[in-house]
What we know:
The structure holds 2 protein chains of 2 kinds. Chain A is mainly alpha-helical. Chain A has helices at 4-16, 20-31, 34-50, 61-77, 89-98, 106-115, 119-127, 131-142, 147-154, 158-182. In chain B, the strands form 2 sheets. Chain B has a 7-stranded antiparallel beta sheet, sandwiched between helices. In chain B, strands 1-6 form a two-stranded parallel sheet. The N and C termini of chain B lie far apart (68 Å).
Amino acid sequence: MSHPIEQRRRTFEEEAVPHLSALYNYAVRMTRDRDDAADLVQDTFMKAFRFFDSFEQGTNCKAWLFRILKNTYINTYRKTSKGPDTVEYDVVEEFYDTIKDSSVETSTLEQQLFEQALDDQVSDAIQRLPDDFRTVIILCDIEGFTYEEIAEFIDCPIGTVRSRLHRARKILAATLADYARERGFSVDGMGSTAGGRP
Amino acid sequence: MKNNDQHLERLSAYLDGELPSDERAELERDLLQDPALQRELALARGARSVVRGRTTALRTQIPVDLERSIRMQLGHEVERATAPAPLSWWSVLVNAIRRPMVAIPTGIAAAALLVMFMTDRSPRVDLYEASYANFSKIVKGEIALVKETSDTTALREFFAAEGVEYEVFFPEIAAELKGGVVSDHEGAHYAHLVYGAGEHLVYIFEVDEESIERNIVAMRSDVAEDIEESRWHWEERSGVGTMFVWESNNIVCSAVSDLRTQDLSALFTLEKL
């Protein structure tokens, strides 16, 4: 008969290890450093294994792991200074209020901004978001969490999730508009993040 | 029509299927009549799609050895948990001294060892160095507990019987009292306590203030200053652990442990020192 901890390990590996890639990617986005992200993920997995008895089987293991990673990140890895290439939060708020309604016809807008955006530009645009906005975009659009799961993760009401998501997508669109202009496309009335860059 | 901001913030929830049916119906009615709102929806839809349609490209490939490293660490955790528990250090020590071939009575042997470590050919015992040295000897099994008990009353009686003239202080500490041993120097007798905190050890050497005033036991000047000003001295020594010195009821207590400072301080009820 196997030792209980060996059984726990097998169950943990079956449930948790499949989420390794998602956790690592989120860790990279938050720490902005692949080595730190790897360390963060390892710490997260060890903590999760030690506390695996407290995980309720059948519930969302991915969400549980993300919460452990978030707390580990906050307690251990979060730097106090922002990276030089993020859009400042208060500038974002001010910018958001001044984005004009688009005067470009919708299908042209979608083609110019979104379909022709390069993968690196989309990645960079996400990375330029402040932490709170970046988190909701990653959790919702990349990792597929529901609003309720996101609200629990960030410890905010669902209304805050809605608000942040909408603003984050708006800023993403404005950032991609900048890239489109740099590539020579004429994107009128879309606003720009230029004023918001530190 | 709803406040514009409220509508705008509903657009993402609408796209994500997270809008309650009544709000969805209201938003759809307004969308039919508001071109500006339609364009906002297109923007939100586009930003959402551009991310969702590229999740593979947006993901960073995990390092090749990360999964293997995690599985190995899990294996180590299992090994640690399933390995037979080693004999506690004090059991090894006590058992060794109780072996029949050890002819010297236990108490004298232990006290002699302790005295040897403390005496440095000078009249004074250096509290600082003696604490570290004794701790090291205990860890290595070269000093054994003469009185093995967690009963503070029994220990007080033992210390008194062995010639300790001051009232031994038992701190409030979240660790298991394992016992004590007595040393003597220049005719004065001193109490030494040992606590176990899981796999870790906390050793406390207690000296009465009179011994310090009479220069039988010396304190390093910075330690003495800390004690005089704040009553506590903390330091970490590489390869050993943490030293914590404080004074309570005219007894100077020097604790050494293989725990880090934050872990050792967490054991003590500091406000009761």
